[in-house]
Structure formats: C-alpha cells, structure tokens
User: Fold this.
Amino acid sequence: MEQSDYHSLLSRAILKIDGNTPQARSELYDRARQVLRNQLEASQPRVPEAAVRKELQQLEGAIQQLETQQKAQPGSTGRGQPAPQQSRSVASRGIFCVHCSAETTDETPGDVSTINGIGRQFYGSAAPCPECASVVRTLWWTVAHVPLVPLASYRYKTAEERVTRARFWCRKLPSRHWQQIWKTWAIGLSAAIAVGIGFYIYHSYKS
Assistant:
C-alpha cells in the first residue's frame, strides 16, 4: 500500500481511541506494526524482503506524518484530532478490518500449490466484508483439481488486485465454513460426474 493508505487507516483508528494521548497513539502504532509484519510473513507466495522493508517504511512514514500533524494542532495537548480522512474507498484498501482481524488468527496456511492437480487449493467465496473487501475461502486437498478434503477456512484478500491473483493475504477462521464447503462439494461432484459421463460417451463412440 501507499503511505497515504496507511495514513488514512491510522487516522480512522485514532478517531476511535478512548483518549487520544501520545501513549495511546504509540500503542496503536505498535499494534499496526505487528499486524502488518504478521500479514507480510503470512502472504503466499512469500513477499521478498525488499518489499517487506518498503511496506514497513511506508507505515513509518505515515506514522511520522500523523505525529507531525498532531503536534502542529493549535494548542495541542496530545488530544488533537487527526488529519481529515480520505474517502471510504481509499481506506478500504487496507488488508483486513478490525472485525475480520478479531474473528481470525495469524496462522498461515503454508505452501498452497498443486502438482498435476494434486495438492492444496483455495475454493469458494462467501461472506464478503463491506469494510475490507475480504471473503471467506476454504483451503482444500485436491486430486485432479477436484476438492476432496476441506482443510480450513480463511478470511482471504488478494494482495495485488490490479496485477495478479497469485499473491494473497489470509487469516485463519476458528472453524470451517460448512455452508461454503457443502456448496463446493456439490459443485465439484457435479463437475466430476459431468466429466466422467463425457469420457464414457467419448470412449463409447470411439469403440
């Protein structure tokens, strides 16, 4: 994200602080640093170290800008209001909102890949969050790209929406999203049956 995006997210968080003091803001900044680092480390595929440093620098730049603005407030005693917020659409570019972060954990899914259709893949999309635009997806063990065993459900958000869907952020939900799992199973089974019938008809015609 850009420094302006971090600035917007932190500005909104400061507005919600019960007592906008330097100490309260410092604690907020520390939590933001930890959450960002955890998200970067959990990203699949792994984010290059140079990119990690760049993101952390953007966050630090936003923090310094906010603190400069706080101190520049006329008659400020540490309870000055943050700079005007940017639009909701800009702020929603953050990784995960407070609610989605609270209902999930930092546990990473590890390597998500397949070889000849055998391996682990994400399927499904449910419960879109209006705040951070994340969705619930389930990680499956697949054979021939057919989802067979649901491993876990995650809050999932594409990291580079305008470039590629290969890189993503995710946070693990405490339990599997069974409504989505049953739907995915039904779709996968229907597709497998359709492919099987197609092969049967093809081979019957050939013979």
Notes: The mean pLDDT is 78. The CA atoms of residues 118 and 143 lie 4 Å apart. The chain is about 45% helix and 20% strand.
